[in-house]
Amino acid sequence: MAELNQDKNTFRSHKNPSGNLGYCWSTFLHLLRVNWGFSILGPTFMIYCSLPFLLILAAFLYSDHIKEHQRPEITVFLAEKVSPDKAALLAKMAAAVSVTYQITIIEPKTAAKKVAKTLNLSADLQEAIKFPRTIQIIFPNDADPLVLEELAQLLAADSRVTGVYSTIETHKLLQRTRCHWVLILSIGLCFTGVISLLFGYFLITIIGRPHISEMSTMFLLGVPSLESSRPLQILGLVFGAVYLLGCLVVYPALVRGMTISVDWFFYFHRLNEPKLDLPSMKILISLAFMVVMYLVGVLFAIRKIHVSIMKSASENE
Description:
Layout (H helix, E strand, L loop, with lengths): L1 H12 L3 H18 L1 H34 L3 E6 L5 H14 L4 E5 L1 H12 L3 H6 L5 E5 L6 H13 L3 E6 L1 H9 L1 H31 L3 H9 L4 H4 L1 H37 L14 H36 L1
Antiparallel strand pairs: 1-3, 1-4, 2-3
Helix pairs in contact: 2-3, 2-12, 3-9, 3-12, 9-13, 10-13, 12-13
């Protein structure tokens, strides 16, 4: 015991910061090499578990984007005998019923050109296709859906009209699902946060448990448990940084795939070209929350390791 106390005093009197730093990094690299499977599969598994929440978050933010840019509209297909003057008169009648954002009368040749350009059709086929004259009526986002539905019914009953297509129901659906999106997003955030916390806890516990005897010996020699567990702390921080970067890389791909699918299903116009800007504040806050929960799990694991070190050291004294 006297020799052990002498070793403690010798260690405390010859503390070397650069030597401690070298110990931390060499031990950290050793842990990475020994636990290379956890080093690769650990962050990958965390990112994989976060994919459902990231997809929900992307859908929530995209729904806001849709509500901001995609206005309710009614497309009226006119009979062939309807002249441009009668089409303009019908458009004025629609504008008198409800406030409109934009009214466009599309001539048959213009419609044929747009369809041929979209489908990459030949000029001969473009000439052969006959489209009716149409009226595209776009309304403000705050337009009353009941008024728009009555207007659509009036237009459908008009003898000059052969068909009516509208996005009113889709717009109403987006307005109603706002509260549901918030609830689903909150549940997903909490669930993913709990998974991140448990993963951080068990990951560091599994990696650190085989080295408790070594750290307890260092504790008996005068090395604080906080210092001996420093490589595990660095390992937890590195895994957290890799997890965050991985989510930031995967998120744009999820947004791209989701927007293309939603735009195709709901027939939205030109919304399938998302700009790859910097992540919004909502995304960064959500990812920061998940990383913080993971680090909380790491701290709990480090705390448990400290308790195990002191317990093992007391048994060996």
